[in-house]
């Protein structure tokens, strides 16, 4: 791949918390260690979950920590025509189909097969609508994983090493768009990464199992596959990952001292050495680039 381009792509469902700042700092350091560019993309395609003004607030939080993108941020809501074009290509290639199933119907179909859906596990789509809607209205468009040339995906994570997922049997035919509604993360992120020329994706380890789905879509649309690095998760007191869904507190960037404290905590979570308290933001950030490169050796 020519010329490193990385990105941080938060969803504006809430302000940055400690875990999301770790991902932001890691992606920034990886780009700087490779001598590349760092972009920010506000992933607001799921308009039902995103909150007004939060995207702008996230950008302010990043800037308060010295993390400023090399280009103007991109907003997914300004790019819906690209997602529609990608979906149309998949439909024309017989790699996407309409689905009329509700979650309750999917759970009932899985139960009839003796499969119980774990609350934290993947709801594997049983393929009910693969050959037609049977009179039901379309509720979503799904990727025809069963038609993919190689649904058993092998890939290598720069931190976690060799990975494998049988997408057909572990995930099934995943959603690309809810009918006449929000675009699914999987499709939007693949289209955006390709159009922005992203060579390296650095993000939290909770998104590791999304990667094979994205690789399948990249292959189906003839798009390049970036290198991936999934960072360690920041856990709460209950042992679960910090997230907006479980009420993770927003990082405090209201004063330079508070922002610096949040940034230092993110660096510590990544295993980086402590920066001197007297260093400014840019000095501290620059001082972490070489240790990051020693840990992860980003390719230029």
UniProtKB/TrEMBL annotation:
Annotated positions binding Zn(2+): 99, 101, 125, 129
EC supergroup of this enzyme: ligase
Binding-site list for ATP: 244
Cofactor mode of binding and number, as noted: Binds 1 zinc ion per subunit.
Motif 'KMSKS' region location, chain numbering: 241-245
Keyword terms of this UniProt record: Aminoacyl-tRNA synthetase, ATP-binding, Ligase, Metal-binding, Nucleotide-binding, Protein biosynthesis, Zinc
Function: Catalyzes the tRNA-independent activation of glutamate in presence of ATP and the subsequent transfer of glutamate onto a tRNA(Asp). Glutamate is transferred on the 2-amino-5-(4,5-dihydroxy-2-cyclopenten-1-yl) moiety of the queuosine in the wobble position of the QUC anticodon.
Protein name per UniProt: Glutamyl-Q tRNA(Asp) synthetase
Taxonomic source organism: Pseudacidovorax intermedius
Annotated gene: gluQ
């Amino acid at each position: 791949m020519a010329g490193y381009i990385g990105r941080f792509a938060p969803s504006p469902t809430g302000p940055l918390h400690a875990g999301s700042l770790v991902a932001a700092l890691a992606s920034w350091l990886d780009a700087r260690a490779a001598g590349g560019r760092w972009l920010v993309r506000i992933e607001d395609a799921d308009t039902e979950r995103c909150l007004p003004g939060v995207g702008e607030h996230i950008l302010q939080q990043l800037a308060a920590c010295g993390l400023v993108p090399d280009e103007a941020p991109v907003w997914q809501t300004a790019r819906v025509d690209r997602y529609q074009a990608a979906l149309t290509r998949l439909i024309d290639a017989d790699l996407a189909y309409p689905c009329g199933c509700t979650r309750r119907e999917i759970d009932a179909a899985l139960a009839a097969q003796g499969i119980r859906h774990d609350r934290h596990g993947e709801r594997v789509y049983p393929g009910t609508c693969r050959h037609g809607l049977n009179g039901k209205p379309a509720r979503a468009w799904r990727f025809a994983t069963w038609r993919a040339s190689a649904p058993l995906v092998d890939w290598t994570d720069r931190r976690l090493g060799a990975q494998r997922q049988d997408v057909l049997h572990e995930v099934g035919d995943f959603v690309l768009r809810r009918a006449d509604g929000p675009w699914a993360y999987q499709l939007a992120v693949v289209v955006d990464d390709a159009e922005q020329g992203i060579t390296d994706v650095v993000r939290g380890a909770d998104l590791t199992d999304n990667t094979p789905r994205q690789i399948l879509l990249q292959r189906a649309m003839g798009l390049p596959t970036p290198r991936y690095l999934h960072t360690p998760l920041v856990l709460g007191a209950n042992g679960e990952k910090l997230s907006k869904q479980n009420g993770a507190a927003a990082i405090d960037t209201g004063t330079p001292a508070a922002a610096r404290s949040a940034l230092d905590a993110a660096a510590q979570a990544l295993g980086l050495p402590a920066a001197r308290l007297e260093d400014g933001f840019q000095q501290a950030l620059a001082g972490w680039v070489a240790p990051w490169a020693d840990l992860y050796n980003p390719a230029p």
